[in-house]
Each structure stands twice: as structure tokens, then as C-alpha cells.
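Lab meeting tomorrow. Look over both lines:
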Amino acid sequence: MTDEEITAMQTENETLRQSVSDLTAERDSLREENAELIAARDAAVNEAAETKKVNYTLARQLDTKPRATFEDTLLKAMGVN
């Protein structure tokens, strides 16, 4: 091999090493971002489940008896009923 070929191979080798380093950093960054997104999604799912539980609890506590109409209340106040 000539000196020029050796220099070209060394340059290519260094370029490829830098590329590997950049890609490794990008991969690690994406992994961290993915972990954060998964944690945020899990928190949202848990919050939605808790909200649903509270909604059902509140729904059971509501008074669902039919209420008297205004007219019935007025007649009762006047002593007609």
C-alpha cells in the first residue's frame, strides 16, 4: 500500500469512528426521551384511572330521587296539597 492509500484509510477510519460516536449519542438521547415519554404516558393513564374512580364515587353519592316541580312546591307552600 502506498502512503496515500494508508492516509486515506486512516482518514476514512477516523470519519467512521466519529460517525459511530455521533450515532451512539443520538441513540442514547432517543432512549432517554423514550423513557420520559413512557413515564409521562403511564402517569396520564394512572391519572385517568383515578379520575374515573372519583367520577363513579361521586355519581353514587348524587341524590337521584325525582325532585318536586316548582308547581308542586308552590301548591304545598300555599297549603293546597
